[in-house]
Amino acid sequence: MAVFGSTDDMYEVLGNLWKELFKDKEWASKFRESNLTIKFTIDSPSGEIWLLPDKEESVVCGKVDRKPDIEMFLKGDDCHKFWMKELNLPLALATGKIKAKGPVNKILKFLPMLKSAYEMYPKIAREHKII
Amino acid sequence: MYEELNMELTDEHNMIKEEAHKFAKEVLRPAGLELDKIYDPKEMIKSPVLWETLKKAYELKYHTVLLPDSLGGAGVDPLGAHIIFEELGWGSVDLAISISVSSLPAFGILMVPTDRLLEEVLFPFCNDKDASIIGCWAITEPDHGSDTLCPYTPQFHNSEIKGQCKATLDGDEWVINGQKSAWVSNGTIATHALLFVNIDPAQGMAGGGICIVPLSSAGVSKGAPLNKMGQRALNQGEIFFDNVRIPEEYMLVGPDAYEGMVDIVLATANAAMGAFFTGLARAAYEEALEYSKQRVQGGKILFEHELIKHKLFEMFMNIEAARAISRSAMVYNYTNIPPKVEYSIASKVFCTNVAYKVTSNALQIFGGYGLAKEYPIEKFFRDARAGLIEDGSNDSLMLTGAHHL
Description:
The structure holds two protein chains of two kinds. Chain A has helices spanning 7-23, 25-34, 76-83, 89-94, 104-110, 114-127; strands at residues 38-43, 47-51, 59-61, 70-75, 99-101. By secondary structure, chain A is of the alpha+beta class. Chain A has a five-stranded mixed β-sheet with strand order 3-2-1-4-5. The longest helix of chain A is centred in the first third of the chain and has 17 residues, at 7-23. Chain A is globular. Chain A starts with 6 loop residues before the first helix and ends with a helix. The model of chain A has no long low-confidence stretch (mean pLDDT 88). Chain B is of the alpha+beta class. Chain B folds into three domains: 11-116, Acyl-CoA dehydrogenase/oxidase, N-terminal domain (Butyryl-Coa Dehydrogenase, subunit A, domain 1), CATH 1.10.540; 131-258, Butyryl-CoA Dehydrogenase, subunit A, domain 2 (Beta Barrel), CATH 2.40.110.10; 259-403, Butyryl-CoA Dehydrogenase, subunit A, domain 3 (Up-down Bundle), CATH 1.20.140. Chain B contains eleven helices and eleven strands.
């Protein structure tokens, strides 16, 4: 059975994750300094989640009319496994479970910022009763 | 230099090109020619010319072109990387390959960046200014050359075809036994290897692993440097592993991701080769063009003879095509994970073939003088020949690429 029952469920969980992260002023400032526009294109269920360097609206669930610096392509279930640390990123990239588009140096700039998300996700997943 | 057809090159790209060309002209070209003349490869690797050249390359961070600035690397974009690689290849393709392949262990760590590997290997490499940390790509073996580089083909999963160099987990360490072939670039001067081993023989080649091995580890020994027809400034030689132990964390990937990672490394390396050999072809063409406008035969300069003009234009055309395909392949494959390896293969095969034909035709234009060591042309021709074989022989690579069609 899919982890996320619908696109809205997925936005609720993953959108929340990123919004919580942006509440951390230090993390938010670091992200905005990187000046990256990141798009997660998710399949099953389908949706898009954008992380933007704008102060006014940093997380958008749905379409945005911009060109991303980095685009990650993955399935909803793999998204969940990734944040639960059940899916190793290099393995996922090497086996095509996650596809990435964008200069490697920008992707690598972003990776260390994911540590905080790993720490936050299990709590959010529990709150939404998906674990 | 050449006419830049990409009108969207930034000021930064133009600056990168100028600086790389200056380094190639003033440092790499004379060094390559001098090192090529040293008969004994054991003496070549002791030559101060080699080490001063590598040191200068490191000072300019050319050893970190594949690595991001956030981790101390040069941080150039894929187009910038191509521009640099073409110029380095123009200078001296053997030294260009040596400088670039040095970064393979760090590149491997980039894919799996644990704090320990960053601290112990990658950061010191990026910060190295005197070429004291040198990497190598230790993949081929005496019985396995191009068949180590055919991921996603049926033969890669044939349990009868497996690597000889093996790794076994013993507690929290991997134990490595076996040998890598005499073709390991930087093999006898390297301090670290990106080593490809067999872990699960039942899966054939696909049952491999990729690890970082400090070559000062107990049990590592090296063969004599290889004496070769061309690319003589590129040190190559065997590495032997006798119960070499590495921490568990130094194994970057195991069989579950091996094939995918081989694909990524192959796509990266082949794309770079496309750029290097575009540079080599251009170097030979420029020499031939200049010579053709000076040498008089039959009462006129060679350039005024129609067949010479025709030949030169064909060389020019092929070099422009080589640049176009190698730039496109590199920009795409250095931007997308997973890459489209067939495009890197196409680039490598096409550009090395162009370099071989162009250097041969350039030598022909020089006539008898083309055979003399007084001119660089004969070195360019000898250097080009290896390109059809190294980093995967072109025939084998084309079959690997064809699997993706």
